[in-house]
Amino acid sequence: MASISFRNVTKRFGDVTAVDDVSFDIRDNAFFCLFGPPLSGKSTILKLILGLEKPDAGEILIDGRPVTGIGPAQRNVAMVFQNLALFPHMSALDNIRFPLVERRVAPDKIAARVAEVCEKLHIGHILHKPPAQLSGGERQRVAIARALVRDPVAYLMDDPISALDARLREQTRVELRRIQQEMGKTLVYVTHDQEEAMSVADGMAVFQAGRICQTGTPEDIYRHPNSTYVAGMLGAPAMNVVPMALAASLQVQGPQGADSLGVRPENLRVAPGEGARITEVEPLGGFTTISVDLAGQSLRATLRGQPRFTTGQPVALSVDAGRAHFFDTSGAALAAH
Ligand SMILES: Nc1ncnc2c1ncn2[C@@H]1O[C@H](COP(=O)(O)OP(=O)(O)OP(=O)(O)O)[C@@H](O)[C@H]1O
């Protein structure tokens, strides 16, 4: 069990500032996502937690204690390496036992610990198989089991399911969420997939170029993004952001200083009328995505079911009450009107 905190941590590699004055708190037992585009510093944060890299400035605390000067082995934080890190010539069982055998733990203690972890991960039936005979998801669970047998205070995963296809990714993230809840351990999870971050995390930090833009629960960040950057990172299709000059056409009034208006596609109302024109209708089963031209700006709306709109049809647009976002010229969010 462990909380993890960063206090003004900076890490440079030559001219590159990979992590730039970053502060955050991960509470004990959280499923915490580090979310951002490639090269934004997420993996470096994991290495700093593990003790594989040292900060140039700032402090890292695990369970409230500074870990400066404490090596990776003493931190007792486990990295869950992916498939390739499993020993191919060993059975799943021997792979999982390995960290304890290496530490010369007594055989009866090893057996008890392995049994406990394997039961929680539901992998008792595949322990005799070598990694090559396991599915991607099973290999992943074996890798998690191997990280967890030595009872780390927290475990870390670096974009663990990005290589899986869409359907398997969906199943696997549900599974990871279940495992994390059952194991009751802090999990720090790197991803650049917004859907993944939204669906699994109970806390997240959104990164841009080594800096944290916003931290909070996924729902909070989705509902109250503090900038156009964060607004654009979460949600698909992305939030529509248009100049304030178009606000009147959307039947919205903005606060003082507003430069642009943001509307999530699910909060954009489309009705027969005047002012805008439909350019594309994309039925996707349970919902339909509609692209609309408003004075040369393309906006997207997601509507439930399969509403009867056709390409070229003139429509009137409006925004659900209280669901408009406003941003200033720098892209920072303003309080709603
Ligand atoms: N050991 C290193 N030596 C030099 N530069 C590094 C090193 N590790 C990371 N960097 C640089 O630090 C920056 C942040 O890299 P990092 O791997 O932390 O980003 P990331 O968000 O995890 O990216 P990705 O999603 O692609 O893995 C990048 O510009 C990278 O090139």
UniProtKB/TrEMBL annotation:
Query: Which InterPro entries would you find in this protein's record?
Result: AAA+_ATPase (IPR003593), ABC_transporter-like_ATP-bd (IPR003439), ABC_transporter-like_CS (IPR017871), ABC_transpr_MalK/UgpC-like (IPR047641), Mo/tungstate-bd_C_term_dom (IPR008995), NA-bd_OB-fold (IPR012340), P-loop_NTPase (IPR027417), Transp-assoc_OB_typ2 (IPR013611)
Q: Which domain of life is it from?
A: Bacteria
Q: Which GO terms describe its cellular component?
A: ATP-binding cassette (ABC) transporter complex, substrate-binding subunit-containing
The record places domain ABC transporter at: 4-234
Report a single Gene Ontology molecular function.
ATP binding
Keyword line: ATP-binding, Nucleotide-binding, Transport
Spell out the PROSITE patterns in the cross-references.
ABC_TRANSPORTER_1, ABC_TRANSPORTER_2
Q: Which Pfam families match?
A: ABC_tran, TOBE_2
Q: Which family does it belong to?
A: Belongs to the ABC transporter superfamily.
Name of the molecule in the record: ABC transporter ATP-binding protein
